[in-house]
Amino acid sequence: MDLITFGVQLLNAIQYGMVLFLVASGLTLVFGILGVINLAHGAFYMLGAYLAYWIAAVTGNFLIAMLAGVAIAFAVGLLLENVFIRRLYGRDHLAQVLLSFGLILVIDEVREMLFGKDVHAVAPPAWLAGSIQLTDNLSYPVYRLAICVFCLAIALLIFVVITRTKIGMIVRAGAENREMIRVLGINYDSVNRYVFAIGIALAALGGIVIAPISTVFPGMGDGMLILSFVVVVLGGIGSVAGAAIGALLIGLTDTLGKVFFPSVSGILIYLLMALVLLWRPNGILGRREV
Amino acid sequence: MSRAALKPWLLAAMCLAAAIALPFWVPTYYTQFASKALIIGMLAMALNLAVGQGGLVSLCHAAFFGLAGYVLALTSPKYDAASLLLTLPLAVLASALAALLIGALALRTRGVYFIMVTLAFGEMLYFFFHDTGVAGGSDGAFINVKPVIGIAGHQLLDLDRPLAFYFLVLGFTVAVIAILTMLARSPFGHALAAARANERRARSLGFPIFRIRLIAFTISGALAGVSGYLAAVQFGFVAPEMLGWHQSATVLVMVLIGGLQTVTGPLLGALVLIGLEEVLKANLAQWKLAEGLIVIAIVLALPNGVRQLWPMLVGPRKPQPAAPKAAPEAGHG
């Protein structure tokens, strides 16, 4: 293996980790703040990719597809929170697992009714097509670099909103003590609604940005769901910074594992998870009890 | 035994009689269907030892189920029959070992971490069979000849006959019910339930919580292996999908439908869900949509568990014919 190939794979690993972070941060927000374990998170990732494909095919513009896809996912999130998820706060995890499993069946069938079960490809926007010469003999697709920059920007945005703004303060305080927030006269229910919708929108956004470099297919959410769970467990539930660390670790392990140890690559990330949990049962940046 | 406790035994005997009579009344298709339902019912009961008794919501039991099936596929000669008396213990042992290993790691975590960790380990086994070339990789593998039960060269049961296979499965179902009932009523079962109800108190009473849970998880995985082995025998085929987390989640749904607090509830839940799927598949193109909505409705309509509704739903009527009910309540107070 020469240095150039290694460099490309390293960049791929980082880019993959970035998308993983996007999806996993949505999962960890919903869990850390609402206390809801959502198995349908991967289904929204898939839905995002299908929406991107469909809107891009209709409008011919990937940016519109991106914005509209996120907006639709956000609206669906608000609706679902209002109809179903709201009733799950404070219920046991089993109820949450099962309700979200029911949601997966519903979303899968709706997707099949709307978009069929074909595999699709999405073209990246023209101004992000092609490759860029990074060093003398290392060129890299512009779109993948753009994903890195974009995801980094979203990560910073989440971080700033959560740690530096009043909304973030309310959200953090509510995650610690819901009653206190209610006593202070803040409408915490609507905060919950938006947190859930943002979580869903982040999952869909992950599916949208990945669509041009992967194919869009029915089962694509499954793998992503499991990986996001591993990321969240690695990083510590509810910790966005932990999700970032976990996502990069998983991105590196998965991508480089596929290059260097192809036959066991599927198992490496779980091995990593087992080792981390032996060291810290609540994840790298996890708080004590959940 | 008091008079109040006698009645359930009568009910159990009636169910068992109905289950024995069933294959002589219905076409072969339904005998095979009943075998399949009982096998999945066994898996649901096995899972319930961890979930209902132990409070350990596991999303990896399909992996123990599938692993046992794969052991049969891997140990079966290509054109010859394997010995059931040899391969079944081997398959169950493999499932038990996997459960012991995964349990030892996962039980270090609590609550939702436990769910996620079991999910991840189950997927690890799924990817092991999916990605490596073992037993056909993602295509799965056929078991060309069903295993035989033989003693000194004499074949005791021809498992190719649906009737013989059905009775084998029924026998295992009754055995699993007996084992789980005895476990639930034993001091061990009470300790397990105590750890679920109030971990801190159970710990301060001196119970070795970790060990108790690990043993329960391992037994649960081993029984899931029994069911997986029988499933592989019935279908003559194993594929990675047997181990997938969708399968684990579906079985959890069965456990919830049937009720967490009884030994045989999950069996009934399995019969209900499999029957429902059969009806939906036959009548609806969008059967998954209907099933999903029904699952959601069950979760939302029964906020305090199915226990409340379950006597209302099934109590007054006669129980399902194919469900041998042995235990009234998995005894823990």
From TrEMBL, chain A:
GO BP terms in the entry: amino acid transport
Compartments reported by the entry: Cell membrane
Membrane topology: Multi-pass membrane protein
Chief location bin: membrane
One of the record's GO molecular function terms: transmembrane transporter activity
Entry superkingdom: Bacteria
GO CC annotation terms, alphabetical: plasma membrane
Membrane-crossing segments per the record: 20-45, 51-76, 142-162, 194-213, 225-252, 259-279
Pfam family, one: BPD_transp_2
Protein keywords: Amino-acid transport, Cell membrane, Membrane, Transmembrane, Transmembrane helix, Transport
PANTHER family from the UniProt entry: ABC TRANSPORTER ATP-BINDING PROTEIN, BRANCHED-CHAIN AMINO ACID TRANSPORT SYSTEM PERMEASE PROTEIN LIVH
Family in the record: Belongs to the binding-protein-dependent transport system permease family. LivHM subfamily.
Record's protein name: ABC transporter permease
Lineage per the UniProt record: Bacteria, Pseudomonadati, Pseudomonadota, Alphaproteobacteria, Hyphomicrobiales
TrEMBL record, chain B:
Statement: the UniProt record of this protein carries the keyword Chloroplast: no
The entry's keywords: Cell membrane, Membrane, Transmembrane, Transmembrane helix
Coarse class of the protein's main subcellular location: membrane
Residue intervals passing through the bilayer: 56-75, 81-105, 112-129, 163-184, 205-231, 251-276, 288-306
One Pfam family hit: BPD_transp_2
One GO cellular component, as annotated: plasma membrane
CDD domains: TM_PBP1_LivM_like
Top-level lineage group: Bacteria
Membrane-topology descriptor: Multi-pass membrane protein
UniProt-annotated location(s): Cell membrane
Record-linked InterPro entries: ABC_transp_permease, LivM-like
MF terms (GO), sorted A to Z: branched-chain amino acid transmembrane transporter activity
Record keyword Membrane present: yes
Name this protein carries in UniProt: ABC transporter permease
Species of origin: Rhodopseudomonas palustris
